[in-house]
Amino acid sequence: MSGIRKSVTYLLIVALFGIIIYQNPFCCTAVYSQETELKYIKQLGMKGIEKGRFAFPRSLAVDNPGNIYVGDTGNKRIQKFSPNGTFLTSWGSEGTGNGEFLGLHDVTVDPKGKYIYTVELKNHRVQKFNPNGMFITKWGFNGTGGRDFMRAPHQIAVNSLGNVYLTDSNANQILKFYDNGTFIGTLGSKGVGPGQFNTPHGIAIDANDNIYVTDMKNYRVQVFDSKDTFVRQWGSLGIGLGQFSETVPGIAIDTNNRVYVVDKINSQVHMFDNTGNYLSSWGSDGKGPQQLHKPEDIAVNNQGEDIYITDTRNSRVQILQVIE
Q1: How far apart, in whole angstroms, are the C-alpha atoms of residue 290 and residue 319?
Q2: CA 302 to CA 65: how far, in whole Å?
Q3: Cβ count within 10 A of residue 18
Q4: What is the CA radius of gyration of the chain?
């Protein structure tokens, strides 16, 4: 009889555990997060003004061959590195002229790798360069609305057609342009409903031209399709699995449609699938080789292998890989 009782007890425990997993989504994601991990590889740069060093790097982007562009905000320049992290070139200085920067806030590369776009919060503008830093054009100025007005431009992304999307945090909308700076229209308005924003900041576009936006003070990610139509959202305020602080500035999507979100206040990176299911997190606050201090942006190389994070207050870029 004792053997039968043990078998029955075991079955009851298994059944109860199954019910707990079914009713608790965090239970399932915690198990899955152990299977999908972010592994530290190395860091790029350190604090300084020399070539290859940074002062509060706020943004970065990776082109098709894997070259890395870092928005070195404190040094008012863009620095370009090879895929293995070797310094290649830099451009920029403080000012309001062509190729100069004030409040350098973001850098991105178009999907074809032909152009580099930068965003300046203090100059209220976008600048466009070739991959070696040659200035091409610029647009934008401060104002309250209209075709070229940018109250608080933060991040920028480009779709496969070359259309440029820019988050304007104070205006609580996305500005849309052709690649020559001609204004197309806006997306969103202030609010808490689907398709509305409260301080949009990070923006990324996947291979199918779906648009992902970090809606910071609504504590969520919103997704729009290639026609700018709202599709879905996820997220809430907190420190639990898949929850966000008030500051989630950076977002990126890899070739496997995994979505990476930077949680600046919690000094973490969260990983989701493209429907919002939580997969994993990485990081803790600190200055160590596998810690972060107020990170701001994230990018993934074209192979979906390497993940780059601007560890802003530590004045470095950290490189991770997905381990499954």
Answers
A1: 10
A2: 7
A3: 10
A4: 21
DSSP SS3 for 169: coil
> Residues 261, 244: contact at Cβ < 8 Å?
yes
Helices 25-33 & 2-23, crossing angle to 10 degrees?
90
Which residues, in sequence order, are CB contacts of 85 under 8 Å at separation 6+? Answer: 42, 44, 68, 319
pLDDT given for residue 143 in this prediction: 57
Give residue 118's pLDDT. 98
- Count of alpha carbons within 13 angstroms of residue 74, beta-carbon side: 16
**Cβ–Cβ under 8 Å, residues 268 and 284:** yes
Report CA 315 to chain centroid distance, whole Å.
17
Long-range contacts of 85-92 (CB under 8 A, 24+ apart): 85/42, 85/44, 85/319, 87/51, 87/52, 89/132, 89/133, 90/51, 90/133, 91/129, 91/133, 92/133
The number of beta carbons lying within 10 Å of the beta carbon of residue 232 is 14
- What are the structure tokens assigned to 12, written together? 């009851």
Q: Residue 148: its pLDDT value, please?
A: 55
Low-confidence ranges of the chain (pLDDT < 50): 1-34, 145-146
Average pLDDT of the chain is 88
Q: Is the separation of the CB atoms in 222 and 233 below 8 Å?
A: yes
Residue 7 phi, psi (nearest 5): -65, -45
